[in-house]
Design brief:
The chain has a single domain, classed as 2-Layer Sandwich (Alpha-Beta Plaits). Strands 2-5-1-6 form a 4-stranded antiparallel sheet, covered by helices on one side. Strands 3-4 form a two-stranded antiparallel ribbon. Helices cover about 20% and strands about 30% of the residues. The protein is built from 2 helices and 6 strands, in the order βαββββαβ. The two termini are about 30 Å apart.
Length: about 130
C-alpha cells in the first residue's frame, strides 16, 4: 500500500548555512534506507510557505490568494510517497525521517479510487 508522509513544522537549513551538509546527509541517508527496503516512490521538498498561492472557485468565480490556505504555524514543507507493506512499516519509516525531530510527519494511506486516471503525461511523444 502506498503512504504519503507529509512533513510539517520543520525548517530546512539553506545551502550556505553551517548545518546544511549534515542535514542533507541525514535526509539522503533516510531516502537511501527507503530505497534499500524497496519502498521509495518519490520525495519532494517544497519552497517556503510565503511562495504559496491558493486557488479556489466559488459561484463560478476564481479566487487567487497569496499564501497557503490554512492559517497555521505548522506549514507543509514537503512529502514522501512510500510503498510499504503496511501501516506499521510506514510509521517506522516516518519515525526515522530526520524532519520528525523538528516537526511532525503525518502518515496517510493513498486512496485507490476506481476509474481515477492519474497517469503522468507521455512526454516522449512530443520529444520534451
Amino acid at each position: 500500500m502506498q503512504y504519503m508522509l507529509l512533513i510539517y513544522g520543520c525548517q530546512r537549513p539553506e545551502p550556505d548555512d553551517p548545518g546544511f551538509a549534515e542535514a542533507l546527509a541525514r535526509v539522503n541517508a533516510f531516502a537511501d534506507e527507503c530505497r534499500r527496503r524497496g519502498v521509495f516512490v518519490s520525495g519532494h521538498p517544497l519552497q517556503a510557505e510565503h511562495t504559496a498561492t491558493t486557488v479556489s472557485v466559488r459561484d463560478g468565480r476564481t479566487l487567487i490568494t497569496d499564501g497557503p490556505y490554512a492559517e497555521t504555524h505548522e506549514h507543509l514543507g514537503g512529502a514522501y510517497v512510500l510503498d510499504c507493506r503496511n501501516l506499521d512499516e510506514a510509521l517506522e519509516l516516518a519515525a526515522m525521517c530526520p524532519m520528525a525531530e523538528q516537526g511532525g510527519i503525518e502518515v496517510r494511506p493513498i486512496a485507490g479510487v476506481p476509474g481515477l486516471d492519474h497517469r503522468p503525461a507521455n512526454l516522449g511523444a512530443t520529444g520534451e
